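Here is this case:
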Amino acid sequence: ATIAGNIVNASPIGDMTIVLLALAAEIGLVSGDDHRSFPLREFFLAYKELYLDDGELVEWVRFATPPSGSLFNFEKVSKRTHLDIASVNSAASFRVESGRIARAVISAGGVAPIPMQLQRTAEFLEGRLPDAETALRAAGIARGEVTPISDVRGSAEYKSLLLGQLILAHFQVLFEIDDRHLVEAVS
């Protein structure tokens, strides 16, 4: 119930939703004898608007066990480290084969009206070496893929910059890239 409640709340910055999106989770809905399922990323239509019919309940949420060679990371920026609403959060799931990124799924919260997967960023990453140059280019693509708004958690520009930094953090944590190589030129 807590996971389903977090998802149905439709907060653009819900930590668990961002994690599940990066894991390419599916959601199952039920209403009486009617059942339907689809990718979680399709559940969020607009701010607090869901692909949920009257009377439907979340029956389950699932994701496949990541295969061998998979890596996962979650990053969050908030005023307090734990138990606080994020300004921006992001999760990344990578499958690496023969030293290259074979599959990438990256999600982000706090940078659009809905929690979202960063499709263009993921498409860019697939087939590339997980190095500093790739990370820097991915951070730029991610920033161009989002539409943050200014609010009490920060300006739109600040949130865009944070997302870029979180993308770089995924690479630093998962691929042990020296942070001196992840210095981004931002104008």
Helices lie at 2-8, 15-22, 119-125, 132-145, 156-175. Residues 37 and 78 are 33 Å apart (CA to CA).
